[in-house]
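Quick one: structure tokens for this chain, please?
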Amino acid sequence: MTDALDDLTVAYVLAARPEFERLRDIAAQLAGLLVLAASGAGSAAPDHPMLRSAEMLFQESKDGIRRTRATNRARAHHTHLTQAAGSLEAALAAARNRLGRPQADLDPILTPLRAGYEHLQRAANALPGFQVVAFEHGCCGASTAPAVADLPDPL
């Protein structure tokens, strides 16, 4: 991957960054709800304000992603961003259906959440200017040591 970006790709990066960040925030909110649910907290329910917030962010992001125009250089990033949105939409739907149930199986939420986060990581690796904390180092992963994929800001 070359470091220099053409003007249209820079414009794409600027337009896509807020959508990427929204999706990253949605994933973090869902992960937080899963921690609450796994700990047995009764507040982890379909009417939880964090879930409503994540759903509103998702609608904003979905519209924003639809409006972005990917260049050839940004095509892989846009594909992963779109796939992340699809996975997070499935995780949100599962959260609406599963949270609040006694001893609910959380895998239908966790599986698309992990897939969405993986697509966000791949999007971050496809273009400079995006970063994600590696999911496997988060609350639902195998390790607790933070790891950040830092990519230089193209601007």
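Helices lie at 7-38, 49-67, 75-98, 107-126.
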